[in-house]
Specification:
14-stranded parallel beta sheet, 2 helices, elongated, 8-stranded mixed beta sheet
Length: about 325
């Protein structure tokens, strides 16, 4: 074990594995699991442990196109690596040790996985530079536990993901980070808790998403340069859904363009008073609102700041009682 620099398990089926099958002196630089099936055995309940547990920082951890089945006493992996790739796997996690998968790394990719778990926080990810999530299927909402360090990350990217759609809510502080760029695109989301996105960033892009619900203060976002909501569909927005989006500079740009809202609450687009100083840096246009309402819809639903901008934005359509009115 002590002389092995890297471990690769490829095209293999390994069953009833225990931590004792691997030398405690084993400390590889890279671990690769590809097109394989791993099943852990049960130990006595007082002997819970990880199958792979490496305290040293590795260069690479890659688990791809594989199936992992953990037991009630033996979890899968705990380690730190510069690059972590968890892709196209079936992960059946029984929750032996608090989280079955505890991974920290500079660059973490967690994509196209199917995850079933008996407990929340079965997968714990701690990125220090970049986090990439795409198209993961989970059977309970809070399987992912995303932990962020105090320093600023380079990027957080979430693509083609379904989040918040089960009976459980996405927890408060699902994303709580300082980060240069945030991109959320092509997702289906239900943000029915406050503070789901608690972010300070240089730029924040929210594009081509379908939101089933947005609670008051679901977005607690502070932005230095650009914040953009583009081509999204919102089924229901509570009052002040965007109120806690704040510009941190007098040149911060905000764009809400080509968005469609169905049955929003009155005041859903009330914005922070800080935007009064940023009217020239705002673009709110090509917005369609569907709601049963009185003809006082613009004043009932939208803050005075927005009304001032709307006077110069002709492509805002308010649909109500089968009449289209352009303001």
């Amino acid at each position: 074990g002590g002389n092995i620099n890297n471990l690769a398990i490829i095209n293999s089926t390994l069953q009833n594995l225990r931590p004792s099958y691997f030398s405690n002196k084993f400390s590889p630089n890279a671990l690769v699991l590809n097109r394989s099936v791993i099943t852990t055995d049960d130990l006595q309940r007082s002997q819970k442990d990880f199958l792979f547990h490496y305290p040293n920082q590795m260069t690479l951890v890659a688990v791809e196109d594989s199936t992992v089945n953990t037991s009630l006493t033996v979890s899968f992996m705990k380690t730190t690596a510069k690059t972590v790739l968890i892709q196209k796997n079936q992960l059946n996690l029984a929750g032996g040790v608090r989280s079955d998968l505890q991974l920290a790394g500079d660059h973490i990719v967690f994509s196209h996985n199917k995850v079933t778990a008996l407990i929340d926080k079965a997968v714990e990810l701690t990125p220090s530079t970049n986090l990439f999530l795409e198209d993961n299927q989970v059977d309970r909402e809070n399987i992912l536990d995303l932990l962020f360090l105090e320093h600023r990350l380079d990027s957080i990217t979430i693509l083609k993901s379904k989040l918040g759609l089960t009976e459980e809510r996405l927890k408060k502080n699902f994303i709580k980070a300082k980060v240069s760029t945030v991109k959320v695109e092509g997702c289906i989301l239900q943000l029915d808790s406050e503070g789901v996105f608690v972010v300070e960033s240089e730029s924040f892009l929210f594009k081509n998403n379908h939101l089933i619900k947005v609670a008051t203060s679901a977005f607690e976002v502070k932005v230095h340069e650009n914040i953009e909501f583009l081509n999204n569909t919102f089924d229901h927005c509570e009052e002040k859904a965007f109120f806690h989006i704040l510009p941190l500079q007098n040149f911060t740009q905000m764009r809400l363009v080509n968005n469609t809202f169905f049955n929003p609450e009155d005041g859903f687009l009330k914005l922070s008073p800080e935007f009064e100083l940023n009217l020239d840096n705002m673009d709110i246009s090509n917005m369609t609102i569907h709601k049963q309402c009185s003809c006082d819809l613009p004043r009932d639903m939208i803050t005075e700041i927005f009304i001032l901008r709307a006077a110069n934005q002709p492509n805002i359509t308010l649909k109500h009682t089968d009449i289209d009115v352009n303001h």
